[in-house]
Specification:
Elements lengths: L2 H11 L4 H14 L5 H14 L2 H14 L3
């Protein structure tokens, strides 16, 4: 992913509340537009970088389960 996209997304949501982030994620998912996927990817990257090894393990376990079906 291009660094400029990361920076643009970061600047666009800087200062957003937890409620704002939830609304953004839910809106992106409900729309199903693929052009919104890079933004969700930036969110995941930021979360991953700030999460503990335990949180990362729990997340990857949930992903593994979600993609088994």
């Amino acid at each position: 992913m291009n660094f400029q996209i990361r920076e643009a997304i970061t600047q666009n949501v800087k200062g957003d509340s937890a409620t704002d982030f939830r609304s953004t994620v839910e809106d992106a998912i409900s729309r199903g537009d693929e052009h919104l996927l890079p933004g969700l990817g930036v969110f995941l990257e930021k979360w991953w970088q700030s999460s503990s090894a335990t949180e990362q393990e729990q997340f990857t376990e949930k992903l593994s389960q979600a993609f088994k079906n």
